[in-house]
Amino acid sequence: MSLTLNFLRDAPQGNNVYRANPVERRNYWRILLSCTVLLVAGGCRPAGQSIAETEVRLELTPNPPRVGTAQLALTLTDAAGQPLETDSLEVEGNMNHAGMVPVFATLRPTTAGRYEGSLEFTMAGDWFLLVSGQLADGRRIDQKIDVPGVQHP
Predict the structure, then answer these.
(1) Strand order in the sheet with 103-111
(2) For the segment 107-144, what is each residue's pLDDT rounded down to a tens digit?
(3) CA distance 66 to 116
């Protein structure tokens, strides 16, 4: 079996330790430092505060949902049952399996804490909706809602 380890070819005979030159050592430390910075920065959260206890109630028409346009109505309330108000909510619809293009909708307020709009289910199967928005006081709404069993028309 012939296996050549190129990084060992510069090592002195009888010594299996590779000694990096000063440029390689500097590059090693630069890469290590860059990776550390990226890991730390990636774990940071945005300054906006999230609402811990939000009740999101979804009404879909038709029910059960079918492929095609569905009317969505979301009701948002806080832990005390008070309606939560914002200018709009963004909804991203995804299938549970990879490879499908997400669909998007903007829901507009109709009454205090109630938001309506439409979304196009493009395929039968299990979906989930990511609902997001920001209240006037800066708190964020981020909820995931499962929509299982979207049927063929």
Answers:
(1) 54-61, 68-78, 114-121, 103-111, 89-95, 125-134, 140-150
(2) 999 999 999 999 999 999 999 999 999 987 788 889 99
(3) 18
Q: Which domains does the chain have, with CATH numbers?
A: 8-42 (no CATH), 54-150 (2.60.40.10)
| 52 closest CA partner among 79, 30, 34, 31 | 79
Q: How far is CA 68 from CA 24, 100, 103, 151, in A?
A: 58, 15, 12, 10
27-48: per-residue pLDDT in tens? 776 776 676 666 665 555 444 4
- Positive or negative CA dihedral for 116, 122, 126, 132? negative
pTM of the model as a whole: 0.65
